[in-house]
Structures
1.
Amino acid sequence: MKKILFWPLLAVMFWLPLPEGSKPEWAMGILMMLAYGLALFWLLGYGLNRLPVTLAFQKARWFHVGFILVTSWLFIQQLPLPADWVKALSPLAWDIHSQAYLALGLPLPELISLSIDPFSTLITALLTLAYYLLFCLCLLLIDKPEKLRTFAWVLVISGIFQAVFGSLSTLSGLETLLFRDKTSYFGVATGTFVNRNSFAGCMEMTLAVGMGLLIAQLNDRPSENWREWLHRTLKTLMSNKVILRTGLAIMVIGLVLSRSRMGNTAFFSSLMMTGFLYVICRKQLSRGMIVLFVSLLVIDTAIVSQWFGLEEVVERLEQTAIERETRPNVATVTLDAIGDYGLTGSGGGSYYTTLPAYHDGSWRGFYDLAHIDFLQFPLEFGIPAYVILALMVLTAAWHAIQAMRLRRSRLMIGMGFTAFMGMLAIMIHSSVDFNLQIPSNAVYFVVMMALALLARYMPTPVGKVRQ
């Protein structure tokens, strides 16, 4: 039964980015139904004693606590509560509800919510629950190294498809998404995403998975002579390493064609930092690692990327400072809002509703997202819930480091590399963007956290897990 559920999980991972990152409401609905359905079938199998609980799932107990606390809080935010409670916990939310009912000529009801946009908060709560269930399913259904490798390959294939689709759509001039024509970001690759930066975020994580698979295939034992080195090289050229390496080059091309400044910066920065951390953890720098990093940083950037417009990315990076001077100061007013809603938050998904009250006249229209995940989460969820989320990410990063440092299995070491690099890349990118507000990218990020635990605790024939 575990195999029966494992294949649908792989299909879900490939599907999620296709409908514009699962951002449209109908795609969110499909995401939730798939996650809830798979979880229900797993519970059925567990009830029939057909499905066991894995070690990685058991070791994730603090992650379970964190997910449950945050998800429960989001449901509480949108529940009708006594008005006096809301006034005590969030005076500004109480005041906004009061003004809204006053404008309608109605008295304030006895029950109101902490969220100023209860429906959006309910959707956010349901999505967060789906993310948690997919996190659990990864830990429960990926119980063998062979399954972990297959799962990683599916993520890489998903990234290659996005890169090929986005590149061909741009270079051919068709400018289309999978289900409709583009309405923005003409001339740059966006894959099946609406926004190039969301596409770049997907590339960052799938490239990290590809890097982990390559590291899993490295041979740390030095060659005794040039004949052995030549034999290994020829053997590599005839193996699936070439396919994987070609896939990485394709994804790098797609990333460069996105012209995403922070996407490219986040990828190469996270690759360098994680590579440096890898050397520290393993206390060695093999020839294979040197060749791998040099090929990525020199061949991809200096040769392949030049053909597809790396100079335009550099030009955009040079213009960043000028654009910052003229960009609306949304971050500052968001910080002001966090000061007002710090304890309970304004409600998950309520940024679009919250921001107009802080509009200082420096921009036109409305922002539905903060363009900085590090500000949107504390505003909507509240600082206590944000701290829980931050601790979960830091703990996952620690497990990834421990996997690189302690595991003997090359696959587990590689997946530890993947998890740390993928999370680090999105954290860098999130400082100026909203990748974690895109459902498919949020799921892939949660998967990176799950991979950290799997890399740390999955038993392998190579040796026992070191605690």
2.
Amino acid sequence: MNRCPKCDSSEVINLNERYKYFDVLRCIKCTYIKYIPIKNCCKNPNPKCKLRVTDNGQRFIYEQCENCGGRIKTPPLSFKKFEFKISGLFDINLINKYHENRNIELEELRTQKKMYDLNNSRYALYHIYLASEEWKEKRELVLKRDNNLCQKCKKEDAEDVHHLTYENFGNEKLTELISVCRKCHIEIHKDD
């Protein structure tokens, strides 16, 4: 990722020092996160040929990383070419630990991504905007314009300001907003 797919910024950093099983790229400008699994097993593979004997006696040679316990190559290696390179038995406990550690790291990255997505969702941005001074000023202008009267029922005092359209959200015109009472506002959104 030379450029951020979210904001097209070129200010992308690699958080490699923190993660062992994934390349993690983060945009400095918008904090977008992308994680990519390492092709081998970990960032510092140290492969050794190991013999694996199954419960039914079949024998296979695999490369197992001595740093993380992961298996380097998926298909078994040829006995003719690699039998003399065997440096021990394939360690099942080590590969199980590798999968456990990799899954912990993956879950951490998924949680970070989920938080990024939530914090940058339309829902979050909507509520951030509603807490802004800009919105508070617009809201007061609309309530004043409508004499604090609900523009739907024309009976109750207006408590809320409703967007007639979200097309220009954050940059809306006063004509795109109306004052409404809480009951009418709930009814309007129920119809939506």
3.
Amino acid sequence: MKFIELKTLIMLLAILLTGISTFAQTTPVQMDLYLLIGQSNMAGRGVVDAASQPDSPQVWAINRHNEWKMAGDPLHEDKPAVVGVGPGLTFAQEILKKQPERVIGLIPCAVGGSGIEDWQPGAKHEQTGIYAYDEMLLRVKEAQKRGMIKGIIWHQGESDSSPEKKDAYAAKLGAFFERLRRDTHTENVPLIVGTLGDFYVAKHPDAALINQVIVDYAKKNKLVYLASASGLTHKGDDTHFDTASARELGRRYAEAFLKKEE
């Protein structure tokens, strides 16, 4: 009899713990949404570590299957074999330090290797087979069921740092952001643009013009702010930020975003 009672107690306890765990992972009804967009340095290529899975009930991310999960690196799924730590998670954590009462929902949509031409409606990115812009719109629409987009962070331009592409970048970037804001209903939402790493410019001199375009766009347009990548370091490939630098870039994005409110 005592054995049966003990067994029943254990079963009830297991059910209770399962219920608590399920409740703890229930997606919040309302969140402040942030769109993460661009190419590989937004997606993240830093090595994951102990800080990559904070399991915070205040930071969530929506995946390519439109499922919400507590956010952790890697956030993106563009190239599963190489994706890692990017700036998005640290960005969210820094926002929470200033707004601790909020719950954040991240919308990761970056695609490694994508040029500005790949962010056109109907365009298929050949490396990944992802329709970057179309997928982004669908994910945003699903995410907006649980909140409003409060900010957009963008890091892209390496793929356009060539003699053949650089001169057209300014016009294409401006047209892209105009369309993005219109299609996602974010005309009055802050946009933070990030510069390319110094190391990338050193190896690809045409990237200096891309950085100038990014800086000028932030200076000349309302609700656009700059996150500088100056002084950050790569992971050994002269292209991608290492883990520490990816997180520092996330802090700089957050600093630029929060500065708008001062």
